[in-house]
């Protein structure tokens, strides 16, 4: 008799959850990305006890069709990808259809949604099992609440030791979301206390000001650069304003936050002689490119990417920042009392 069998869906989802939902901040990232993909212009995030007790996201996006409700928490179920061809041309933030299935496997999730002209609904899933499925009052958009994270995965629960660290990571993710989407109003609330709120006016400098204050925003200089395949634009901050780590090098590609060691390095190189050795710059830059030139499917978190014309982009990045810095040397720094 054969020994091999396909694992049941709830076990498959628990395994996938290990990669997709590592910690509260990964959930915040996945859920708000879904709101952005749904075209939301207002996204409110309410966190209780650093996300371990509750993560609630309310959006005004296009909502989910009533007919689709049975697929929402199924693995590899997505509305964002139809053909394998599209996998090489990703335009949405999500596409793997894994987040909600994974989250539903390791937490208690309640989801309410309504799309235009469709019946509003509510569903609750706990550790992979559906609990109720009742019709809910009308409101366009989606409300999702994740409670008791990792209640059925004790090892993962133990791994979340320091709630302060988790809060910091949630702030980090939300700030990057806000920076990458100045035309969306984001609100972040911890235990009933507002942390920040952006207006959605589309003005990146205003977002920088709300998040980092005037010392940073008033020293931010607009830059832009183009090469045959890439366009870079955004702000670099004068070299006199420094930070002691690389976290303030904000990079996004087609408005998706990315981490790319060589790109960060090319920015640090451009600032090279203008900053002390142990100090790092602040920049807020978005790269626009044909989605065919980038592979975002390297890891489930989609933060790491592979580029096909890397050398061209690295050069453009260093040149763009250098040109911007040359201009900053001509304009006096704006002083601020600490
Ligand atoms: P993915 O984002 O990769 O498609 P998810 O598991 O994150 O996979 O979500 C599954 C599907 O549920 C999405 O493709 C989308 O159709 C729907 N969905 C999830 N969140 C929202 C939301 N806030 N608004 C509208 N649709 C949503
Ligand atoms: Mg998603």
UniProtKB/TrEMBL annotation:
- Provide the species name: Jeotgalicoccus aerolatus
Q: Which residues form the DNA mismatch repair protein S5 domain?
A: 208-326
Q: What does this protein do?
A: This protein is involved in the repair of mismatches in DNA. It is required for dam-dependent methyl-directed DNA mismatch repair. May act as a 'molecular matchmaker', a protein that promotes the formation of a stable complex between two or more DNA-binding proteins in an ATP-dependent manner without itself being part of a final effector complex.
Which family does the record claim for this protein?
Belongs to the DNA mismatch repair MutL/HexB family.
Q: Which keywords does the record carry?
A: DNA damage, DNA repair
Q: What is this protein called?
A: DNA mismatch repair protein MutL
């Amino acid at each position: 008799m054969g020994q091999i069998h396909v694992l049941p869906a709830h076990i498959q989802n628990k395994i996938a959850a290990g990669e997709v939902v590592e910690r509260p901040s990964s959930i915040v990232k996945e859920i708000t990305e879904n709101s952005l993909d749904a075209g939301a212009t207002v996204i409110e995030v309410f966190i209780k006890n650093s996300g371990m007790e509750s993560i609630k996201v309310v959006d005004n996006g296009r909502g989910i069709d009533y007919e689709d409700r049975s697929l929402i928490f199924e693995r590899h179920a997505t509305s964002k990808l139809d053909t394998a061809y599209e996998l090489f041309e990703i335009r949405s933030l999500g596409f793997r259809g894994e987040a909600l299935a994974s989250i539903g496997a390791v937490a208690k999730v309640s989801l309410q949604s309504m799309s235009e002209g469709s019946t509003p609904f509510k569903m609750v899933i706990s550790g992979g099992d559906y609990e109720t499925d009742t019709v809910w009052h009308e409101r366009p958009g989606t409300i999702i609440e994740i409670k008791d994270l990792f209640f059925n995965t004790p090892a993962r629960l133990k791994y979340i030791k320091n709630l302060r660290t988790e809060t910091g990571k949630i702030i980090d993710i939300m700030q990057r979301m806000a920076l990458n989407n100045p035309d969306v109003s984001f609100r972040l609330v911890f235990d009933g206390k507002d942390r920040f709120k952006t207006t959605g006016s589309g003005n990146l400098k205003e977002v920088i000001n709300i998040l980092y204050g005037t010392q940073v925003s008033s020293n931010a200089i607009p830059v832009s650069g183009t090469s045959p395949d890439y366009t870079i634009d955004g702000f670099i901050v004068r070299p006199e304003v420094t930070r002691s780590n690389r976290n303030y090098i904000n990079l996004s590609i087609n408005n998706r936050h990315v981490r790319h060691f060589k790109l960060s390095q090319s920015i640090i190189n451009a600032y090279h002689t203008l900053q002390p050795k142990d100090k790092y710059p602040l920049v807020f830059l978005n790269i626009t490119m044909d989605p065919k030139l980038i592979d975002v499917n390297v890891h489930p978190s989609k933060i790491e990417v592979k580029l096909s014309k890397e050398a061209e982009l690295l050069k453009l990045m260093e040149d763009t920042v250098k040109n911007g810095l040359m201009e900053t040397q001509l304009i006096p720094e704006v002083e601020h009392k600490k």
